[in-house]
């Protein structure tokens, strides 16, 4: 298998079918792949609609959290279950373009030092307050962590599964993957990707539920960066 695609969803009942249809139309014939939806404790009809889709799509796997645990937890659940060496992640709201998965995969295959290829939404299709808060957060984070990544919040990423499973795990870690990968000795690159306006459902994120947690997490990652653990060990002949 070439690729596992992990899609965390929370109350996205109207997005799961069109997103799966689009993913399959883009990836069929190009990859040997699987699609893993992680239902992060949805309380709408998401679980039932995923069950119906699972019956009709052999590539689809569905994992479900008993209660909402957050995006990082959902991504880690999918990563642990994935069967392929490379794992692509995609937001469940339909704003990421599945066509860009191939672009990220080609970048990864061209450089064997890369552990992470992340999308860069150069033309954001979000509200002005969301764009502004992300711009401020990215600027501050890049200045303090030096991760050289213009858009860590993009849900479209491609990670080397085995390497990513070695990283420290904590809530909201998905926003700090570039810094964590660099700390562990892996390579990171950003690739421009398409971004689309949300057509169905409502956003689960806003300034109020990201600001304070983001500050605490940033301080924690700064602490981790000062304590790398990468000894150069070799076995004697």
UniProtKB/TrEMBL annotation:
GO terms for cellular component: plasma membrane. GO terms for molecular function: undecaprenyl-phosphate 4-deoxy-4-formamido-L-arabinose transferase activity. Residues 4-164 form the Glycosyltransferase 2-like domain. Keywords: Cell membrane, Glycosyltransferase, Lipopolysaccharide biosynthesis, Membrane, Transferase, Transmembrane, Transmembrane helix. InterPro entries: Glyco_trans_2-like (IPR001173), Glycosyltransferase_2 (IPR050256), Nucleotide-diphossugar_trans (IPR029044). SUPFAM superfamilies: Nucleotide-diphospho-sugar transferases (SSF53448). It comes from the Bacteria. It holds the Pfam family Glycos_transf_2. One of its GO terms (biological process) is lipopolysaccharide biosynthetic process. PANTHER family: UNDECAPRENYL-PHOSPHATE 4-DEOXY-4-FORMAMIDO-L-ARABINOSE TRANSFERASE (PTHR48090:SF3), UNDECAPRENYL-PHOSPHATE 4-DEOXY-4-FORMAMIDO-L-ARABINOSE TRANSFERASE-RELATED (PTHR48090). This is Dolichol-phosphate mannosyltransferase. It comes from Thiogranum longum.
């Amino acid at each position: 298998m070439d690729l596992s695609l992990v899609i965390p969803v929370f109350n996205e009942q109207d997005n799961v079918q069109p997103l799966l249809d689009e993913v399959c139309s883009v990836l069929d014939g190009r990859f040997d792949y699987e699609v893993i939806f992680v239902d992060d404790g949805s309380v709408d009809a998401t679980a039932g609609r995923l069950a119906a889709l699972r019956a009709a799509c052999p590539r689809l796997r569905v994992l479900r959290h008993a209660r909402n645990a957050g995006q990082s937890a959902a991504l880690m659940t999918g990563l642990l279950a994935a069967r392929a060496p490379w794992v692509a992640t995609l937001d469940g709201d339909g704003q990421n373009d599945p066509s860009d998965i191939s672009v990220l995969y080609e970048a990864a295959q061209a450089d064997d030092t890369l552990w992470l290829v992340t999308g860069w939404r150069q033309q954001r299709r979000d509200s002005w307050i969301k764009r502004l808060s992300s711009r401020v957060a990215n600027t501050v984070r890049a200045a303090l962590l030096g991760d050289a990544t213009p858009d860590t919040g993009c849900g479209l990423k491609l990670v080397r599964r085995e390497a990513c499973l070695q990283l420290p795990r904590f809530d909201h870690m998905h926003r700090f993957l570039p810094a964590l990968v660099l700390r562990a000795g892996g390579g990171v690159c950003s690739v421009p990707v398409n971004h689309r306006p949300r057509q169905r459902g409502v956003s689960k994120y806003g300034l109020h539920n990201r600001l304070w947690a983001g500050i605490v997490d940033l301080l924690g990652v700064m602490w981790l960066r000062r304590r790398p653990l990468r000894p150069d060990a070799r076995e004697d002949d």
